[in-house]
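Module 6 notes. Inverse folding takes a fixed backbone as the condition and produces residue identities as the prediction. Think of it as a translation problem where the source language is geometry and the target language is the twenty amino acids. Below is one complete input and output pair. Work through it position by position during the lab.
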């Protein structure tokens, strides 16, 4: 028997999300949580250096004093180990918890994270630990298709927040009625992160919550 498509199992009703309130879909890494800081500490515990000198991931991992970054596949193994064992230890992004609690009073919140399947328990526990007991969907690849599937289930306004332009562009392409916002939590990354006029870039969570409310609540 063929397995169902990844979007087939994502029912808002099954996830406990009301169809009568606006829907806000939020990423985790570098949006709700300080991934780069946490991953950097993990690499240091393994005797490696994480140099934030470009908007990249595997190309920023070095052996101490080395001029060339680790081979990408080796860096990917460290990444997978981090998500399997330590992704529940990252710090929340400044102001993120307070902003989501504010938004949650009038909107439905859904967490959409690109992370390995091994991370699901730790990521869900992390959300609970920080007072964010919202439905979690783990995704791979561009986020436009799954977002389009989700928002097609509700007539309510919707917003999407991510740090990566490819995901924001994907949502804009597949679900053009969704308001898209870029947020980059790590201050070291902000000068390096590409931006686009298509998606308002708001790196302060209080201001971002204001913009999301204006987009989906009309205020």
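Target side of the pair, the amino acids:
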């Amino acid at each position: 028997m063929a397995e169902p498509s990844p979007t087939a199992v994502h029912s808002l009703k099954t996830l406990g999300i009301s169809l009568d309130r606006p829907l806000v879909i939020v990423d985790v890494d570098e949006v709700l949580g300080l991934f780069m800081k946490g991953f950097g500490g993990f690499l240091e515990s393994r005797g490696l250096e994480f140099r934030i000198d470009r908007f990249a991931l595997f190309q920023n991992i070095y052996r101490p004093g080395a001029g060339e970054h680790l081979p990408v596949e080796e860096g990917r193994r460290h990444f997978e180990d981090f998500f399997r064992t330590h992704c529940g230890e990252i710090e929340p992004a400044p102001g993120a918890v307070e902003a989501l609690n504010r938004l949650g009073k009038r909107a439905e919140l859904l967490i959409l994270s690109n992370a390995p399947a091994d991370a699901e328990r730790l990521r869900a526990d992390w959300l609970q630990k920080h007072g964010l007991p919202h439905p979690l969907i783990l995704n791979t690849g561009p986020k436009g298709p799954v977002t389009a599937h989700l928002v097609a289930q509700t007539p309510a306004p919707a917003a999407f927040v991510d740090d990566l332009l490819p995901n924001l562009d994907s949502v804009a392409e597949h679900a053009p009625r969704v308001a898209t916002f870029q947020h980059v939590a790590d201050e070291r990354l902000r000068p390096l992160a590409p931006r686009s006029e298509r998606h308002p870039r708001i790196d302060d969570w209080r201001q971002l919550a204001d913009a999301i409310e204006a987009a989906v609540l009309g205020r």
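Reference fact for the lab report: The longest strand covers residues 108-114.
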